[in-house]
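Thread title: Can someone regenerate the structure for this chain?

I was given the following input by a collaborator and told the matching structure tokens would be attached. They weren't. Posting the sequence so someone can regenerate them.
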Amino acid sequence: MDDFLFYGIICLLAFLISVLTDKRRLWNGILLTASGLFVLLGFTGIILSGPLHQLDQLILFSLLILAAVTPLVLITIAVYLIKNARDLVRKEGKRMSNLLSLCLSIAVFLFLILVALTIYTVDPLWVSMTLYAGFYGFLFVSYLVSSFLYRFNRPSQNKSYIIVLGAGLLKGKEISPLLASRLDRACHFYEMQKKVAPPPKIIVTGGRGEDELISEAEAMRGYLLDQHIPAQQIILEDKATNTMENFQYSKSLFQDPAAPSVFVTNHYHLFRASLYARQSGIEGDGIGSPTTWYYLPNAYTREFLALIEMYKWVHVGLLIVFVIVSALLL
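Best answer:
Regenerated them for you:
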């Protein structure tokens, strides 16, 4: 059992090296989550392998309580996700994109059923399916950890550009509360830097959707002007249709490709956007703006699915390995 503690320490050291090297890595969350699990297993093994002293008995009792309530916690989370999906549909409309938290709730219930079948039958097929589902549960938790850690990023106020990522407009031309929060965050950074250094240019990026009367960038420019940002400090990028294009087209507007920059989006989108920024050759980190609480479970679920899509061939490979291993076990 000492091996588990050793693995936990190794994962923790690897996490520290990884996060200091680059904060924009899913591996940061994977390593930190794995470290916590290994340490928990290690201490459990140490307690069970020797005589139980009073403190050991207390710790073991706490671990048993934790193991017992975990299914109840998962059921509570699943029920909350159902309620959250209902609230989101009522407030935002009945669209498939607003039902992802409901899908996540169903996935939690299916996982609990898989665990129960595995314990009851100890069948290799159910075991392998439970491990496969558990891996993606672990990956989802790791993503949330990575996303949470990246929120603590605090870029220095010496930037040449602030890139504000666009979002859909209301009634084809009006700034949504979600997009307004991004612009307000950009204005705050602009005003803070203006006190200590030359003010940055603000690049508003977003094209015109099929149901929009003007481009997102044009609407964003109008909002910034209303917030008393000088017109000469605002740069329009009105062709981008997705996050990758937001960064690629914005970078093409830099006078110096290596100019220091920062991008602004909502907290839930911050981590995945940072991956696109890195792929686009933008070294600047991001800063997040707040989002209405009821929107978050659905938004984080969507971000996780989008992250899987970014590396879909890796996950296709994992599925193939799972099928082959399962076939060999049967």
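The beta strands are 161-165, 201-205, 234-237, 261-266, 286-289.
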